[in-house]
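User: Show me an example of a complex going from sequences to structure tokens.

Assistant: Sure. Here are the input components:
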Amino acid sequence: MSGSLRRRDVLLAGAAFASVSLSGRSDARVYGGGAPWTPGIAPGLADVPQTIPGGDFKFFTTAEAAFIDAAVARLIPADHLGAGAKEAGVTVFLDRQLAGPYGRAERWYMQGPWHDGTKSQGYQSRLSPAELYRAAIRFIDQHCRQQLGGKGFAELSTDQQDSVLKEIEKGKLKIADIGPHAVEIEGAKGPDGDTFFAVLMQNTIEGFFSDPIYGGNRDMVGWKLIGFPGARYDYRPYVERHGEKLDLPPVGVRGRPEWKDQS
Amino acid sequence: MVKKLPSVDVVLVGFGWTAAMVAEELTAEGLNVVALERGAWRDTPTDFAVTFAQDELRYMWRRSLFQEPARQTLTFRNSMDQTALPMRHLGSFLPATGVGGAGIHWNGQTWRFLPTDFVARSHNEARYGTLPEHMTIQDWGVTYDELEPFYDKFEYLCGISGRAGNIKGTIQDGGNPFEGARARDYPNPPLRMVYGPTLFAAAARETGHKPFPCPAANMSRTYTNPLGVTLAPCTYCGFCEKFGCGNYSKSSPQTTILPVLMRRDNFELRTQCEVLRVNRDSSGKRATSVTYIDTEGREFEQPAEMIFLCAFAQHNVHLLLLSGIGKPYDPKSGEGVIGRNYAYQVVSSVDVFFDDKIINPFVGAGALGVGIDEYNGDNFDHGGLGFIGGGYLACWNTHGRPIELHPVPKGTPKWGGKWKEAVAKSYLRTATISTHGAVMSYRTNYLDLDPTYRDVHGRPLLRLTFDFGENEHRLSDYLTDRAAEIAKAMKPREIHAKKREGHYSVVPYQTTHNTGGAAMGSDPRTSFVNRYLQSWDVSNLFVMGSTVFPQNAGYNPTGTIGALTYAATDAIKSKYLKNPGPMVQA
Amino acid sequence: MKIAATSISLGFGLACLLGLAAESAAADTSFARIERGRHLVTAGDCIACHTAQGGKPFAGGRPIETPFGTIYSANITPDRKTGIGAWSDDDFYKALHRGIAPSGAHLYPAFPYPYFTRLRRDDVLAMRAYLNTIDPVKSQPRPPDLAWPLGYRFLMSGWNQLYFDEGDFHRAPDKSDEWNRGAYLVQGPAHCGACHTPKNFAGGDKTGHALQGGVIQGWFAPDITNDRRTGIGSWSGDEIVEYLKTGRNDRSGATGMMAEVVADSTSKLPDQDLRAIAAYLKDQKGEEPAQPESPSQVAMKAGAAVYSDSCSACHQMNGKGVPGMFSPLAGSASAQSTDPTTLIRLVLEGGRTVSTDARPTPSSMPAYGWKLTDEEIANVLTFVRNHWGNVAAPVEASKVGAIREKLQETSHASR
């Protein structure tokens, strides 16, 4: 039982942000004489996930959170089928993601020089996701105030919001064009609106369908909507039940309500 | 200050599938083997335990098991007239970091290439005449028959679940009748079949095809391999590719080799040690050591009698270029071998939407599916089609992870209430047919060092210049059309054929089947290694993995990588150790 | 090309013979005798306690937790100052047979002399002869950290009067040679009861309860009598042999302290010894445990939900497990053990079966301590202990909490 300290991937927002970065990788280690293993009761000994802490926003300002609430409510709206992205907690999910390693683009290659590139070369903005959201929200809000009667995006009617989102989706708005908030990018225009839209939609889907430990998919509403049973690990009894609607209650990494005593 | 360490018999660069296989084979011969892995130790109960492995966000979307572009990536462009830019985050392919490599997060689709794939140039030229000038495909220098025992050995190591189609020349009912002759059946019976692939099988039969259960490194029952290592039955949890298996049910170095290898006193694994270059003596004919750096920035020189490059496909090429070993490929003159003949895979799919059939996509396994092979390799007459090669079609039920899988019919808005409604309606009721096409090699698809961008150690990044050619588009369209025909025979409400259109892009995930860059062959002018994966120039240097493919076939590469590795270690044991030096005279 | 020497398992006896043998009075250094000594030292698993983590074999210093404090094992290499190199054969025999050191001081019974006293003198001296062949290591283990009054070794004489039954092994004439061989091994060198026999308040064996299971160092060493429910009565002799030889059979896998016993001792014993141990154990009568109280339906229902989502992938819905990989729980003696300490511990911190040459795959149970609350663990264990025909006392959340706290205290200190 050699004591193998583990690199702990902290996935989530919270006080531990700063503790893990690329430079925080553990020492080089030598292994031999059997595969190492250490029993572990506490997170850190085993490489286990942590549930995000609740409470205040870690990244968004109140105004930004209102923007995101409004935007994700249009991308996946609440309707006759049930809760939408806003009700599922996607704003909290996004907040914790943007405050963490993902928001900082910690795993991304972020060295210049910077060029726009072709579509097939992929993301070429020097903005990390957190910076991209911050810049895009300010720009879109400012655009709305200028064009739509002084109202920010969150204050618009849902039809107006849909029109703005369509403009962004189609790349008609250039986020780098935003005057004082223009992002300083050497020789590059910066991300188009459609780049931001693609990131926002992807992240919204993530927040709607990821495990509830990350703050979204509250009460597993995303999974219940489509019939995904969640973090189950054994479907052997169902392999040959062809064509049958199974209606298995979804399970999160942290369980489901039936795990508690139902007295 | 580089610290020089005591010499060992063998040093392995990287510690995934091929390194684990080489280490097991050569420690059993009594050699002292040291493996250097840039990532961390990983194992089932601690890194992907059943208690938390089913986490789509963490593993797929936050890339927990994958290579970090911040430390190493490549630059990419479609053509030589463009400026290559860094792949800033992962997309099209997903190399790993850490012990076990991509062998941890693969799906387990374990195929053999066709006999004609190994003689791609001579066979196609004989049948179809001269190939286009810019197509640089070549024969492998080894034949299917020569590799057969080693395919067999790898399949028994892994415990592949499947049904033979051709045992010693006798076609077997229910198997793939197009496969090369095999000495015996798979070690395990096929996985039990879910609904979508069952519907596909019926439609394929109805349209005159011969469907078969795809060969899977997911266990259909408890299996103990020839090394004595035991794997448990697959639970069809649907968290295979991009995930580690928490249930000991998917073959990986961890589940097939490491329990035995790690007990051997003559094996040592050093993690978080990244090899910077391979060093040679003054003659340049002999590799003497590797220089590596640990996470504290300390550099070490590890001398060895034999050096094996076992890193991911393009990383081996990168290391050769940085070490100045082998002649770099020049696309203008067509001379040189390092970086030459990079290839990939061309994939497409057809979504099949039902109203009345519940598919339950989440009851899945990485290689759970039914395939047909009528349109692979040269299994069909290409006369008049305008392309060579092909690929398999398969209806897989690999997973139902909803961030990745939420198919909607063609014409559905990309967001909003209608999108939500379509997702909710389609999720349980959609099957998908995939096509998996070969990619040929071309004069202008290659790897070299980028002139501008640097990695975390200040070394030039590798530069990838690649695009699909006309052959790939015609091939892929042909396969997609065939898939659409079978899809219609499944009697769905509607289908959505998603052809592979336009330029190759690094953005959407396609496959992690990157090949070439230090090809094998029988001519040192067009290959870097001989049929035993031994460098022509530096006879104690060996290159493992798909790096040596001269072009890619219409199958997933891991089975062939395994066979080539065992063929190499077999020759090393029977020839090289007795008489170190070139095993093939150029 | 140079080929590295592989002295993995062979050649040891030869090295012994060529080594520095004849320092002590143990004059007979014949190969056969040293081999017999090596065999007995293996059967006794001396190396486990007498080797510190990362330390030299037999050089001592490993902390042994006892209910009264921590003892550090002795250096039993032939070093004359810090080991036992200066001991006479009589000194060595007296230590094993009576628990008395050459100085006259009493040894603590964490050293299992209450078992070794059954060893024949010529066997003891063979062990000595073998220990003389290993490399001497200069290393002075630290003194014990014991609670008063046990720090006073002389008090041990009183303990011995109460709990120590000195004396040689006596054959049972009505039993087979194999049975007697097994009895000698179990009662003597292998000292199975040191863990598997319940202890009284003073740490002595509870008389009349031999091998019925006991708590030791935070584990419950299970009942290994022939009782069908809590013991190994449902195991065949061959299954016992397979378990001891490979660390695994279709019913169970060795984890925790037993993993070390298998790795260092039983997997290296000849099959005939293992068969003898099996024959003896199969003849040990258990004590039918009292009928336990019934579990609450609330706990069973919640436990069933946790089980189906968190446990069934490996242990299966029918509780039958995966033979050789994941232990069955239905009908399992461990699952129904009178004391759930080991079960709780395995759920909290995970466990891994021993890796042996015969069964190299270390199948593992992941840790659930971070994921399940005390109550969820209590409920799922109560379910496991009372489903598929299993019968055992419900597990209380408070007991889970206490073990969790204890593990959290010690887990960092000991690694």
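The lines above are the inputs; the final block is the predicted structure for all three components together. Chain B has a mean pLDDT of 97.
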